[in-house]
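anyone seen this seq b4? input:
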Amino acid sequence: MSFLLAITRDDVADYVSAVFLVYLILIFIRILLSWIPRMPYYPWLRAVVDFIHQVVDPYLNIFRRVIPPLGGGGFALDLSPILAIFVLIIVRSVVVSLIAG
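predicted toks r here
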């Protein structure tokens, strides 16, 4: 029975790495959603899009304060996700390596 509870540091590091990976994927989906001007309205699709916005936008807003969107109007180029992804990858590698030992 004790073998079921034997979770190693590498297992925890793998789980933490997977959480970071899921968040990176959500950021990429958020970037793709910003390229679609009008989404068709379906309640389930709206719920998914709202979930992605609520999860990712607070993190991206930190970087939008540092790098505001370039240009104006509907053609503004938002470079903040690039910096956000770069920082997240660095934090992921540091945290996972600290957990793994």
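The two ends are 26 Å apart (CA to CA). The mean pLDDT is 89. kinda curious what u guys think
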